[in-house]
Amino acid sequence: MGRGENGRSRFVVALLIAVVVIGTVPATVAAQSAPQAGGTVVVEEGETVDELQAVGGTVVVRGTVTGDVSAAGGDIRIEETGQIDGDLEGGAGSVTIAGTVAGDVEIGAGSVTVAENGTVNGTFTAGAGTVVIDGTIEDDAEIGAETIRLGETATIAGDLRYDGDLEGNTDAVAGDIEEDPALGVDVGPTIQPFASWLFAAYAFAINLLLGAILLALFPRFSDRVADGVATGPLRSGLVGLGVFVGVPILLIALAITVIGIPLSMIGILLFALLLWIGTVYGFFAVAAWVLSLVGLGNRWLALIVGLLVGAALTLVPIVGDLVSLLVLLLGLGAITRALYGHRRSVRNRRSGTGSDEPTTD
Q: Is this prediction's pTM over 0.85?
């Protein structure tokens, strides 16, 4: 491949990767009845959908959902104009209800807030670090939290059963107040199985897209990465650990200087992209190694099998995270070794002392 074609290939892969990255950052997605996944999933003001099942960095309801909402995300918000005619169930870092939920609410979150204009017509069940009630609950409430705060504008028309530190306006409770230590902070629901599977499928899809781009444009380099894991897994893992720990230290040192702050921000983005590529290459390389043991040497099969295993690992608590971290370190190390080997071969060719080894394209 000529130098001009080489440059065009790198431009194409950079453009495609940029498109993929942009697609994974928060972007408003119109919510439909089918499950949604994205950086931001929104039911816009004035929009009406039958139901909402969503996984996203942020899930927002500004319009109307005539059925149930099941959501998992970093932040779930039912804004003042938002209305849910069915039930709300989900798990998130934070949940805010400033609109109306006609049915029941079951939430597990770091923090839960029913704002002053928020209304829950059904029962309210929450497990969280902090729960703040400033709005209206028209039925019973069951709350397990480290801190439960009832504001001056709060109203709970039914009974309150709780575990944690109850603070504020207890006169807001029209029914009985009962402390129940058996509740704990886990009274809220865990994230529904659909949400975990939806997230795993979403991760598989975007990783497969990135992997396909890398294999299509850098087939020989991809083979080098796979060989690096197969022939020297310990060395690749140690090199990957050095990159994983060393690069953030360098970026922090760079950020200390005023002129280095912009460069460090760019470096953070590039390092995040490197971690993503390292994860994809890691699962590809491990799968390629395992498949070669049974006589299968197809790189595309290795990519699909590896990423399927990676997606499945996201459903396995703790063990899945540890295995994914080890695979990431293998991928980072193999990439670093392959890049170093390529640079050395290019330098040797220019000096006339090396053989014509394949390049990254």
A: no
